[in-house]
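User: For a reading group we're discussing how well predicted structures match intuition. Take Short-chain dehydrogenase. Before you show the prediction, I'll give you the sequence so everyone sees exactly what went in.
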Amino acid sequence: MRLNNKVIIVTGSCTGIGKAIALRCVAEGASVVVHGLEQDLGEAVINEIEKDKGVLQIEEITNEGAPERLVELAVKTFGKLDAVVNNAAMILSSNMETTDLAFLRKVLDVNTVAPFALIKAAFPYLAKEGGCVLNIGSVNAWSGEPNLFAYSVSKGALMTMTRNLGDTLFRESGVRVNQINPGWVLTETEIQRKRSQGLKDDWYKDISSVYAPAGRILWPSEIAAAAIYWLANESGPISGQVVDLEQYPLIGRNPPKN
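Assistant: Thanks. Here is the predicted 3D structure of Short-chain dehydrogenase, as structure tokens, for the group to look at:
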């Protein structure tokens, strides 16, 4: 039990990567606050969790006071708070032409500002427990796909925040802040997104080796397995680090010519 008796908030955990992380945390001995926007899906996650090991909060993370309410729920229900996983995010296609300022601000608000607000709200409790933060970024933070402009900008900003707080907070209080950058993951949202772009329902079964040398893309459970290391005590004093989770190097790799 690598997370025995720990209390962890996982935002955006009604589906996808967040759900996989929440379930894996419980399997490793933690209690979790499940958070998201879909009441039915959130209740389904809670029903998969051992009794008294999970509590659900359905609310838009950018609502005024939402971070404070998540922290309050964790402490009221379980008595403390050991870790925060900032996973909730908007993943919407956009480029320079289709991105107006209102859209960019909204994406930044969800993907970058809200994680900071939750860290700030949780900090007194994390400091008391010698806790940690795990930000869920994206390999797009390094440059970004052409049609993921706003999303990529927000994840780049999140990565810089991780580097900064991972140094300053650890020096001041022992609170570690790290980040994992998943690559292409087969989540429910990604399946729907590709379907909306006109791809066939089983598009993920036939992906070029340029993008998937393994013959498939990543599974949420694989990201969750990696997340546990950063939430567990075994990661020791490591802080301010960003780790890419993809099946090929993002930097310095040129796609083979057809």
